[in-house]
Every structure is written in C-alpha cells, then in structure tokens.
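Two proteins follow. First one:
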Amino acid sequence: MCKNTKIRRNRQAAGFRYKRNLPCIFLKITYIINYRHKIMAFPILTPQEAADIIKNGDNIGLSGFTAAGTPKVVTEALAAKAEKEHAEGRPFKVNIFSGASTNDHVDGALARANAIGTRTPYQSCPDLRKRINTHDAHYFDLHLSELAQKVRYGTFGDIDVAIIEAARVSDNGEILLGTGVGMSPTVAHLAKKIIIELNEAIPETIEGLHDIYMPLDPPYRREIPIYKPSDRIGTTLLKVDPAKIVGVVRTNLTDGVHGFSPLDETTQMIGNNVCNFLIHELRRGAIPPSFLPLQSGVGNVANAVLFGLGESNEVPAFDMYTEVIQDAVVDLMEHGKCRFASTCSLTFSDAKMAEVFNNIDFFRDKILIRPGEISNSPEIVRRLGVITMNTALEADIFGNINSTHVVGTKMMNGIGGSGDFTRNAYISIFSCPSVAKGGLISTIGPMVSHLDHSEHSVDVLITDQGVADLRGKDPVQRAETIIENCVNPDYKELLWDYLRMGKGGQTPHSLNAALAFHTTFASEGDMRKTDWAKFA
C-alpha cells in the first residue's frame, strides 16, 4: 500500500472527506482525527496493524477485570497472526498478564490459536483450561492483589505492550477507562508501547466512576487511605506518557456478559442459609447494627445471597467492598438496599449494563471502580471489617478448602481474589453444593485433594444442607459440626466412619484412607461406593 493510499484511508476512517486537491503538506497530518469532538494525535490502526506491533515472546499487559474492560479486537487479530505464523513453520506465543480473567476475545481466541506461552493470574475460559491442563500453556495461579507489585518489581520481565480499552483518550495521554480497571495503571506505566482500543459502546458519561490510584512500592509505601468504601483516593482518568501510545483501534463491542440462569433449588437453599446465618449474627450482636461491608464472589450463589439480603427487613442498607459487582447489586441500589459499592469491575450482563448507562447519574455517587491491588488490598479488607463470601470446589471435614483443582489435578479457574479477602475477613464464609454430578461426588470429603485455603482462614462453611460455624472449634469439633450440618445424607455415615478411623493426634486422619473418596470415584465413578475396609 502506497503512503498516500494509507493516508487517504486513515482520514476517511476518521470521518473526513478526502479531496484530491489538498496540498501534500496537509495530507501529511495523517494521524489527527476528530473523534467525539476530541482531538487525538495518534495513529488510527486496524486490529491487524496493531497485532503486527506485537512480537513472538512479548509480555502483554491487558486492561480489564473479568470480561469487563478487557480488549476485544486486537487479541483476535493477534490469534490470526499466530495461526499464520504457525502455518508457515514459525513459533509464535505471547505471555498474557491481566487483572483477572478476560473473555473469549482474549483467552479463547489465543488459546485456540495455541498462542499463549504463559498466563497469569486467573482465567475462566474452557479452551485455555484445556491448554493449561495439557501443558500447552504455562499458567501460574496467583492472588490477584499481588500481581501488580510483582510486575513493577520486574519479577516476570518487562511489559512490552499494553492493550488498554478506553472510552476516550486525549492527546496528552489522559485515558478514560471502561467498565473494568484491573491492572491497567501498572501495565500502562511500565509498557514500552501502548495500544488503545477506543470502544464506542462505552459512553463518555462513565467519567467520574473510576478511582485510579497506584501505591508506592516497599519500602516507601504508606497506608492506603480508605476508611470507608466510598472514600475516593485517586483520579478519574489514567495518565500515561503519550509518546508510548503507538496507535488507536476503534471498536464498538459490549463486554458480552451473559445474565445468570434462574436459581435452582440447591442454589436457593445455599443463598437462604447464608442469609439466615448473617441475620443470626446481626441479632446476637456479632455484627454491628449498622452492618459491615460485604464482598461477594461471582456466580449464581453470590446473586442468590444478595437477593436474599435485599429482601430481609432485618438487614439494614449496606456497603460493598469487593472485586466484582453483578446484576443483583444494581437492583439493590435501585431499591436503596445497597448504598455504595467499591469494585474493580462492573461485571453486568449487557442488558443490565445498558440500564446503568441509561441512568448513569443515579449511579454516579454509588460506585467506584478501582485497580485490583486496591479493591483486593488485604490492608483495607482488614481495616473495614469486610464479611467475605466465596465458593469452593470442595471442602474437607476439618475446614480446608479447594477452590481451584478438580479432583486435585485439573485446573478449573484459579484462586482469584478469594485468598485476598478470606485471610483478612471479619467473617470468612465459603459455600458450595453438598454434592455434584447428581450425587456421584460429595463436595465434602476426608481430605481436600488440593489445598487453597487452610482451616486457619475459614470461619464458616455453608451448603444446601446447612451451616457449620467453625470459629473457636478444634479439628474434631469442626469435623463433627461439618458432618452434622453440611454433608449430604448419602455421605454422612461414610464420613462419620472415617472420623472414627482416625489414628489419634489432634487431627485424626487415616492417611491410608484420606483420599479414598477420590480414588473410589476414579475407579468406580461414584464416591458412595467407598469401602473403608480396603484402607484399614
């Protein structure tokens, strides 16, 4: 493509009418566009041109947190580039650093193209999960609050390119971010080059919802001055060196978050049990009458809990200090039940996001979107007295939690922010159904097959069967409480028998039989067929 053809195309893409009789010197002003009435002095690139900036082995930093605020078109073009490189016999993989999980445009497309060398700190894409579990992609699981500082310290090398989704970018390097922040400040600060995905689907009226703050690193760090969830400590815009912005790619795509399916009976029972526990604690004075900030994980159980709290006349209006807010929070705000939410991400369904955008003035003083190292800061979680609610893949009768690995070996999603919140909570709650796969699997066994949260961090375990308050109990008392209150009836006697098999000591495990539920499922396909006599 000749230079003048490229000039003409860029000018036409920007909305100018090309005139052949314009002086050549005027044509050389190729990269100044009038977009949303704001002048930007950056090249307008196609996704393919942006992808060509990225090289094999590059470390790529992404904006966003979950699907919210995550890039959408450059990474798909990068996947196409990788497929072409592979077809021509050349290696091509990049290393992806993000705030949390991304979306199919990133992890899905790149995984299908086998273009991911290393991935951290969290993911939730089935295609990437397959690559991780077959070692086609290296994945290291990390507490979300830790990654930004480790990146700034150079633990994983330089950030070569940052891809940042924005609602606006100014020629002085001020960026209005989208619906998720994640690790944007750190990767934009450190990256050698920055690519902006300018998304027309995000209205500029979102300005004011962000609170961008990057703490100093040790040994110079001071306290993070948040003393209530609504405290603003940073700026509404992300400021970067404009010389590092190598181009702007225009998009018009929503985050594509799907609404949650209707609550089933099990999910509803778990939600009710969590609500009833919190109300009981409020009644007996273990939670202050003004209540405490809540953190809630992602999924149907979290939504069920929030809806239940919203319907309770005994629970006062409350704040949230969390990493993600979902559809239920919007409804709670509209009904006056949730006063304020500090978050890292607006993980709303497209329909709910449109509702928020259409009524943005109502939500402007009720939401702050922060970087992940602030939303997940252990210091702040401990200071505010956050009540944390997260989900488990499995638990054991002594209160240990597996959040990440199916039957101990296959990575599901990752630890995410659950450890950041759990280990610093006022009350830490984990919940899960009592059985899986139609009863073939008990989610509570003698010993977890993989350990993410130890008994020392878990205050309460809740299933559809009931509530086990583990605070102040020794290991045997915890086991008795969990078996009696949380275990499915099909497995109660098996677990009572296991506890009686214990070989003494404070935590009476039978090491020969500790993983018998898992080995029986592997051989028989049904944990209920466990025969302790084989392990005596």
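Second one, unrelated to the first:
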Amino acid sequence: MMKFKYYFLILFIVASFSCSKSPTTLPIQSGTIFEKSITIDIGKTFQTMDGFGASDCWTANYVGRDWSFDQREAIARLLFSKEIKEGDPEGIGLSMWRFNLGAGTSEQGNASGIEDQSRRAECFLNEDGTFNWQKQQGQQFFLEKAHEYGCNSFVMFSNSPPVYYTFNGKGYSDRGAYSNLKPEHYTDFALYMANVASYFKNNKNIPFSYISPVNEPQYNWDAPSQEGTGWQNKEIKHLAVELDKALTQQNLESKILITESGDWEYLYKSKGNAGRSNQIKEFFSPQSENYIGDLSHVPPLIGGHSYWTDGNWNTLSQVRQELASAAASHGLKIYQTEWSMLGDHYNDKDYPGNETSTYLDIALHMAKVMHHDLTTANVSSWSYWTALDMDRWNHKNRFLLIKLTPAGGAYGDISQSGSHEAMKNLWVLGNYSLFIRPGYQRIDLNIKNPSDSFFGSAWLSPSKDKVVIVFTNMTANSLEVALDLKGMSKKHLSIKRYVTSSRKNLQEDIPKDDICMVDPQSVTTFVLQY
C-alpha cells in the first residue's frame, strides 16, 4: 500500500456568486498545507442516472419463501430502505431491482444436473403450458418489498428458456456457441416473458421497465453449475423480434434490454466467436443484418457486465474509454448490469490478492470499478450481481452484498432459516445508491494532479438544490479536501458526510465549520443541501 500523506481542506462557499464570478471562500487557517485542490463545475454535465441495483439470483427465492419473517424483513430493509434515523441509515435505498425469470431447474431437482440446490431456479410455466403464479414466491416477496420501499425500476432477466423449450430439456446447454432454445419455441419463449410481465403489471401493479431475454451470450454454459445458454447475434435478433411482437400484443410498455454481454469488450470489438461479439454495431448499425434499433420496444441502450476488465486501474480506464466512444458513436446509453469479483486476475497495487484481502479491501476495489464505470464509461445504471449469498470457499464478500448463514452453517440447506450480515460491499454501494437518486446528473469534478489512490465524482439533483460528492481514499492517511464549486449561485444550507471504512458502515456526521475530512481507507459521501 502506498503511503503518501496528503492534506486537504474543504472550503465551501459562504457568499452567493454567479457563473461569471470567482467564488469566495472561508479564511484559511494558518499552517494549513494544501497539496491538491478540487474543482466542481455544475455547468458541465454528463449522463443522468436511472438507478443502482442488484440481482435476486438465486438465494432470494429461498430466503423470501422459507426464512423467518424477522430475517427477511430485515434483509429487505437493508436493500431498499431510504430512511436515515439519528444518523444511522436503515439501508442503501436501491432504486433498481433485477428479477431472475427461472427456467425450471428447481422443479427438476437432482435431475436438473445442477448439484448445488441454491443455484436452481423455479419457473412459472408448467409443462402443459399453464401457469403457476405461486412459484418463485421468495423472489416475489423481495420484488414486492422493493416496490413497497419506493423502488420503481425493475428488470426481468432470463438465463435460460424454460426447460420445456430447450434442446436437451435442461437449464444448461450442450449446444456450444448456439442457443439451447429450439427453433419452434422462439415465439413461445417471447410470449412467456410477455405473459409474466403482464401478470405482474396487472395483478401486482409492478411494471417491469426492462426485459432482458439473454444473459452473457458469449459463454456456452455447458457446465451444469447454473442455468444458462450461449447465443449467436443472429439468434438474439430473432428472439428480440419475437419479444417485440409479444410486448406489443400484450400492450406493455416494457423495453428490451440487450445484451448483458459477458464483458465490455464483446460490445465494441471482435473477440472470440465473431458471431457473438461486436454487438453495438451488430444490433444498432442500420447496415447490419442483425439491426434491431428500429424495433418499437428496443431503446437506444446497451447492457454489459464489468467482469474480467477490472483487474487494475489502467485496464479499467482504457476499456471503458473505448466503450464510451463506441456507445456514443451510436447514440446509446450504457447499463452496467452485473459485477462481482470474479476470477483471480486482480493485480492492482492497492489490492493484496484474493487470499489475504479483507472484506474492506474487496469493497474498496469495487469502488474503483464503480468509479470508472460511472465516470469513464458514463453508465446510466450500475448493478451488483447477487444481493444475497453464503460466504463459502473463502470467497469472503466477493460475490454478495449480504451474507447468509443458514441454520446448518454456510454449507447448510439454504431453505433453513438462519442469520444474515450486511457486508462492506453493501455499504460502499450505499455511498452511491442512497444519495444519487434516479434523475441525478453527473457534473464535472476535477482533482488537480489526480491519482488512482484518491478519486471521486459529483452529482446534481434534478431540482439543482443538492450536490452529492463521493470520494474514495485508498491511502492510509486522513485527507482534507479544498473544494472550488463553480456555477452555484446559492449558499449551501447544510453539509453532511457518510463514511464507510473499517470501523464505519455509512456512518453519518455533520462536519464542523465546513471543514470535512476524508477518512483513510474509506468511501465518503458529502451531501450539500442548498
């Protein structure tokens, strides 16, 4: 860990000024040392956020259905509550929730070939074509709780078509690079997804903003570890056309989210199987035979995952610059729809490695990924992978926000109610999700002499009366920040900060005399109310 010592002082504006005037600042205390300064310009804007989210795969179905009332209510509160009581946030206020439309491997049991019970998923569809809306009860519980807490953006995503529609009758595939969906069932699968969306809209008053019909199509999903199938770009177009028709038929406003690529590079370059990559051009260039940009339910939006291109600062930056350029050239918004700490390719100087990392080390690396996705790739939505899971095989919190411990221990039966614990990942995500709400727009934040050990972003509320600043401090020292805020003609009424560190979990305090510290090894959010 590099140990450079910086001192920064936050100087907030105490007198009104216009865009053409220089801001006034508080008097500088004698002896204060400045080595950096930060400028925020509210007149220079970037993307607008649609939400921060997480996925209910896979354990949410067991927890929401089988665990005790107190446990599942407390978990829902951690994920969705926006309340801050006496400086203590109840949760992280997720504004987007991803609902896994299962393929029916749970009903197959051991015959599914998926050994881990917690990786199987139920299906609303019966083999005779009828529906059983009592399935996925646990997932429905969390979907309804999200809605109850005010989350209003929902994504229904599919890893595999229902097992009744696949070549091998399984939720995993033996078709290699090609889809496991039988050709005669493309229309059936599309109608199934539309029927599920229609049910929740009409019976639960929960409209799905997006339907994501394929997931990581670049992978073959031939190992029976979870539901999944590969897809060729031409097969994805076929399904998108059928789904567009089905949504229109059902009079649904849900949009189609394409393509949840396995990593960012598949979206903008030829990589591996040419029939499964370069998807921005494939789907959104009118000259492409796979063009779908003219479908009424396909928005100018591309989705992908931040896996595998997240090993260090330079890769994070370079890949996301290329992604942003490719998306902008086609007029597309970008959604980051899945990230967790997959693999062992992490060689960042601030990360000690998977074996010796602490829970905070993992959360701080997540902050680096989030920072570049938000400020370099300009994503308009950012979602974590699994909201809930067991801490097994020394994975720590690499794949979860909330740790579950069933009654029989981490390796016990997931259907047996146990206990839960909020992880550092949850609170670091909350440094963003609780305060940067849908409609907030990123504004320019410039750190003089920037480094990969101290970085941040700034966000302006739709009503322009609140500025949210999120800093990550990877150093071992407390930092003081000198802020020059340009373009705000009003005096701030209050400043609050919320800190996640080794000892704090999104802890609130009110800085004294407008002097704000950034704790060592922390993610810190400042909220300026005007």
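SUMMARY FIELD: Residues 1-34 have pLDDT under 50 and may be disordered. The longest helix spans residues 186-204.
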